[in-house]
What we know:
Blueprint (H helix, E strand, L loop, with lengths): L9 H35 L6 H10 L6 H40 L17 E2 L6 E2 L7
Antiparallel strand pairs: 1-2
Helix pairs in contact: 1-3
Amino acid sequence: MSSEDIYLDPAVVGRSAAEMTAAADDLSEAWQRFGLTAGHYHAIQPWGNDTAGQSFNEQYLGGKDHLALGVIEATGSMVTMVGTLGPNLKAYVENTIDADEMIARWFDVSGADGPSGSHSGGPTESPDGNGMTPGRPTLA
């Protein structure tokens, strides 16, 4: 295997995608708890109703910039994006495997699906040189 080759172990990537998804789920749950807690404090306004409290409330919850809402929306967008990482990684790997299999069929030695004699489309040498990697790998 040359330094330009890429070896993909679908089982490892599948586990990584599942771990990313689990971490994203944990993050989403924590963010929802944060939203509930923030909403609670926004409702009871513990900063008070005196002049300082009213000023804080105007800057924090009111005004043209809505600082609190901006923070909640920004973190919500980040949580949503993180939630796509695991499923996107899994889909990327599955699509890569499908494309590799299709290309291998094009170069099948039988000549039925493409040019003859270029590639068997069968198992390929594993990167450690200890054997063949047969069949279609699957992701967890």
